[in-house]
Structure formats: structure tokens, C-alpha cells
Design brief:
This protein is α+β, with helices and mostly antiparallel strands and about 160 residues long. The chain contains five helices and five strands; from the N terminus they run ββαβββαααα.
Length: about 160
């Protein structure tokens, strides 16, 4: 099968990759670029575990072909922390037990970050609506929502 050359930027770093036509962006991130923080939960776009942002838009990486990533900017969970300094969302998730097994956590954090970049002062209902595409089997969602609201408040300096 013929491979296609793509160039993309992931978390501010430029990459070149050879991808097969059937490979998803998730496959490229995990198997080619060895960025394994993004998880595969369902491979059908129903669970949100593979959430990344592509050119600033929240996207299920399991639904996007790798060849479609030519020239785009992708942000993954690996890009949230700055060195050893965790993002306020990551800190809040740790402090308020917004994570359990860790399968959904990267996707939830990426989705929450995308929300707070668009709306730094969301209501609880807005957070619930925004994260509705992320399934969690462990936390019951309340701790996730609380963590996002706490982080939003901290990021606003309130």
C-alpha cells in the first residue's frame, strides 16, 4: 500500500510522517509519532477519549484520517503541561479527584481546555454540555465538572 508524506505541527513541534491512507490521526499520533497520551476508547467518535484540537477545533482523532493532517496544528494532552509545570486543569483534576482509571482523562482535559479558551467563565451547565461527548465510566462526572469550574476560576484569577 502506498504511503503518503505529511508534515504537521503537534504541540508546537514540527513532524514529518509517512502514513497509509487508512490510518487515522489517532494512529499517526500514537504509532508513528509515539505520542501515546491520546487514548482510543471506541474508534467510532462516541467516547471522546481521543480528543485533540486541530487548528484550534476540538476533534475526535479517531475520525480524522492521518492524510488529512497535512499542514495542520494539533494539540494533544502532551502539550498541556509546560515542562514540570502542570496546566491549571491538570492540577484541579488531581486536587478534586477528577480522574480515576485515566482512559478518558486526556480527552476530557483537552476538551475542557478548548472550552476554557473559548469561554473562560462557563456555567456548570455549559461545562456539562461541552463535555457531553466525553464518556467516563469511573467518576460519575461531578468531580470532572467541579475540577473544570475550579480551574476556570483559578485561570481567571478570581
Amino acid at each position: 500500500m502506498k504511503k503518503h508524506h505529511i508534515s504537521l505541527t503537534v504541540n508546537g513541534d514540527d513532524y514529518d510522517a509517512l502514513v497509509e491512507p487508512h490510518q487515522t490521526l489517532l494512529d499517526v499520533l500514537r504509532d508513528t509519532l509515539m505520542l501515546t497520551g491520546t487514548k482510543e476508547g471506541c474508534a467510532t467518535g462516541d467516547c471522546g477519549a481521543c480528543s485533540v484540537t486541530v487548528d484550534g477545533v476540538l476533534q475526535c482523532s479517531c475520525l480524522m484520517l492521518g492524510v488529512e493532517a497535512q499542514g495542520v496544528k494539533v494539540e494533544t494532552i502532551e502539550g498541556m503541561a509546560k515542562g514540570n509545570k502542570l496546566h491549571p486543569l491538570q492540577t484541579a483534576f488531581l486536587a478534586y479527584n477528577g480522574l480515576q482509571c485515566g482512559i478518558c482523562t486526556p480527552g476530557v482535559l483537552v476538551a475542557a481546555k478548548a472550552l476554557l479558551e473559548r469561554n473562560p467563565d462557563p456555567t456548570e451547565i455549559e461545562v456539562r454540555y461541552w463535555l457531553a461527548g466525553n464518556l467516563c465510566r469511573c467518576t460519575g462526572y461531578d468531580k470532572l465538572i467541579q475540577s473544570v469550574l475550579v480551574a476556570a476560576k483559578e485561570m481567571r484569577g478570581a
